[in-house]
Amino acid sequence: MTKCFSFTASRNWCLRSSFSSSGLRSTVTDLGDGTVVHCWVPKTRKETRPDLLLLHGFGANAMWQWGPDVIPRFVRHFNIYVPDLVFFGDSYTTREDRSDSFQAQCVYRVMEANSVRRMTVVGLSYGGFVAYSMAAQFKEAVERVVICCAGVCLEEKDLAEGLFPVKNLEEAADILLPQTPEKMKELMRFTFVKPPVKTPNCILVDFIHEMCSEHVKEKKELIHALAKDRKLSEIPKIPQPTMIIWGDKDQVFPLELGYRLKRHLGDNAVMVVIKDTGHAYIVEKPKEFYKHLKSFLLPPLPLPPPPTTTTTTNHQNI
Description:
Layout: H1 7-21, E1 24-30, E2 35-42, E3 51-55, H2 62-66, H3 71-74, E4 79-83, E5 92-93, H4 100-113, E6 119-124, H5 126-137, E7 142-148, H6 157-160, H7 169-176, H8 181-191, H9 201-211, H10 216-227, E8 242-247, H11 255-265, E9 269-274, H12 281-284, H13 286-297
Parallel strand pairs: 3-4, 3-6, 6-7, 7-8, 8-9
Antiparallel strand pairs: 1-2, 2-4, 2-5
């Protein structure tokens, strides 16, 4: 029987429409080295607004992760840029480099192509690795950084020492890149404190087909590249003001990795822990997430000076 309706494709269309109505347009940048990057950029860039770059994590394309809760709130304050990282959405490369450093270089070149020279970067999960790498490589371009539940300070030995609920990277990849409804349900148990209940298998199969079936091999290589030979002592300390946001019950990147990153950056970073949330706190508590982002990215306006008072002197005729 021919498939006649896809819930996932329908929602993807709605998200595209939402991005467009929010003042963004879809672009594709050919970097000329076998790499093509899709990115949502402002239809009209306003010089008076700062530039904000949003980097997604593993899962669906960038629209699904940033669109429903973040874009509408920030589009009034920033020129917003939302790329699909390489091997997600419509971005890909023929090159063999799978490092977060390479992803950061690709995104930076896209921002250059859009005449953006200074920016704030927010990275969610895997996007947090890329954001951190951008801040380390392009110090003059990146003004501020927000790292959202990204285990930047993980070490390869952490897996063997039992910090994660999985035993190895292959097991992690099977969960993060689900190819069956059972694996999708397992992923939801890992990412949510209260996973969606009784999601029909047909919906999960549809989502996997639409969002998780392309570049599976390459995405697994991205996961392996994150932890390979990674040592805390070799991770640079970025100089930019940084906010670290974590869910207290995160099972993908345990909270200890957030505290480890805070210790690594010292007074240059502030850390926020969102209670009773897991890795998907952007979905579980979007208002609280937005509140913390806003406090860091949009400092309150200075209070107006108090009104001047004039002293009236009464003169009496003597």
